[in-house]
């Protein structure tokens, strides 16, 4: 494949950016014309951020899997589409060519059809990082079903909430998953979730760990049996469903500052164009490159830069089942060496955790294949940036610091590898088509350079969310109501003298723990469900490895005894309600919380105490009971 829209010089970038602002429709329709459409779109863009309405390429007909698979078959049929590295380095890896991928996706698409899945049905996918996860995602897309992948670390309760919200009647899962030295009993977690979800009709279970599981007649089926059935039916093809560009492709749940996680909705056409464009440009993908994105497909990064971006570009995408520190902290480097990885895309948390192991794990590892390094998910600190640059990139690989969100579908602000300059800890410049703006609390634009404010985007780009599933008003409230006519990101940001953007972190009550988004309200709700807990308040605090840790202040009136045990009990409850990723790092028992006279918790004060900055707590005179602050300050963990 060739990419006429790949930017090769700073001048290319400037010209593309200029054009994208002057003539966004012309700019994006030219790029979209390089994809396979069954019918061309009627209009390039309709939009109104007030409602919000966002439509790209409306009336255009296509199927994203024809763009990710079928169109590559003629020239790239024998090329690896997915290389899979198992958790256990002793187990054999797998290479799936584009032709194999086509075969497997078609087979599983037929399995879904055989089981009654139709266009528009929601299919929930809860699997470990095995190739069948990507296959299930693509098979759903092939028949026009809407996939909703749930990360393997979420609890039964979280799954039940999502199944109910999406009204998903079909589930694809595994018996279990391997992650490092742990085995996660996925099917058993699903079984617990299904107690609350009697509407689920089918659960298709892939064998991975072959741990004993319950299989209910009439509802639960083995993946392998279903594939065999399709083989005997002898239908080697599964014609792809014709989709409108604005039909839903997937729902992905993510945390906000209030309430339960919301189902962010992406549609077929715009998402495809945007993930491909950003992949090809930011990473400067070259045909033949092996691209290793270390994320899990349960998060947006995996959707966009393991599955759709790379595959739509005909790239080889490396999928890794395990964790960076098992069996030892050299695992990433072993993989880079083994498969001659060219592009490595990971998170600051992973870099910080690996830094802690020193340089020993890098010994005898040939990393010379690396050409581009990337980071995503949270702000990267200078030290981690420098370590990555020196020891992994050997000062020869540009590092792209890519800022984006589940809602944005793809990277919005980033340098372009080797084309536009990097600046440590800065995401730098917006991609063509992206029009950032900083505003103050009142929504007034902060103009000029050397300023900071809340980050908003003032014009639509093809990859942006369209709605939140089943609740359009919630999308309006969350993203488009804070500032009129702007998409509000929830992030604070500064713009330096040269116009480079640096994301400083969330300005709402969303935490970013190891690059995972967690709402403080969600964690509080989970803690409050624990017997004996009267009230709680959760804030983030700086954490050396995770970026942010979770600090919980808890008023507890349960049976007194061993505080340490009670802390563990509360953590178990949070694990049950949300999942292990939301477990507080610190729990402090308090007798009261600092509240204003109107009953609002003053989180600013709690945040300062959690950060250890107790000397300057600011004005506490508006508190109902200022005495409570001293108690919290002097309290012990
Ligand atoms: C944060 C992940 C600083 C940010 C793709 C955003 C970042 C949230 C960066 C979205 C970055 C992501 N620098 N912060 N390069 N990338 N973030 O939805 O706070 O899981 O709002 O999407 O992560 O997290 P999400």
From TrEMBL:
Residues 522-600 form the AMP-binding enzyme C-terminal domain. InterPro entries: Ac_CoA_lig, ACAS_N, AMP-bd_C, AMP-bd_C_sf, AMP-binding_CS, AMP-dep_synth/lig_dom, ANL_N_sf. Residues 13-68 form the Acetyl-coenzyme A synthetase N-terminal domain. It is an enzyme of class 6 (ligase). One of its GO terms (molecular function) is acetate-CoA ligase activity. It comes from the Bacteria. The keyword ATP-binding applies. PANTHER family: ACETYL-COENZYME A SYNTHETASE, ACETYL-COENZYME A SYNTHETASE 1. Keywords: Acetylation, ATP-binding, Ligase, Nucleotide-binding. This is Acetate--CoA ligase. It comes from Pseudobacter ginsenosidimutans.
